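WARN  no MSA supplied for this record, continuing single-sequence
INFO  ligand: zinc ion
INFO  echoing inputs
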Amino acid sequence: MFGVISNSLKTISNRLYTFSLFNHTKIICHSTRYTLPTATTTNSYRYFCSNNNKKMNLSDDEWRVKLTPEQFKVLRQKGTERGGTGEYDKHFEKDGVYHCAGCDAPLYKSDSKFDSGCGWPAFFDSVPGALTIHEDNSFGMKRIEICCKNCGGHLGHVFKNEGFKTPTNERHCVNSICLKFKK
Ligand SMILES: [Zn+2]
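INFO  complex generated
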């Protein structure tokens, strides 16, 4: 009898926790004016709308030692590499993971990469919990910026509902120079 009551209480408490987590997420994301992915998408980055919780906090000088000047420009200064020039634009090797070139955190599995023809590596989903997202209003455009959650490095942008026949109908447009492929 006590077992039944205790299990029921556990279920209720789990539901309350899920409910509060969901609403918390909604409030955080609302402040960024970002439309949440639909329930059918598997994106995990929706829980991380702030870039303030990154684990690595290196100074610009420390990053300059770690990165090439080109990587620094994109990862730390939100630059963009020239389309069609990146190492991984047409790279479709299987059974590997694309890691952050700044901190080595795993970001994208090779089976989520697809050929978008846009000139930059394209992925339809990330490794769970790997990214943070921000609304980016630079250059007169309203875009969704993606960063590495671990080091805060700029990766690129996410575009939604473009009609690609992928499980999420999203395109994570990522600069090659921000990635390092590993088997
Ligand atoms: Zn990183």
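The first helix runs from residue 2 to 31.
INFO  checksum written, moving to next record
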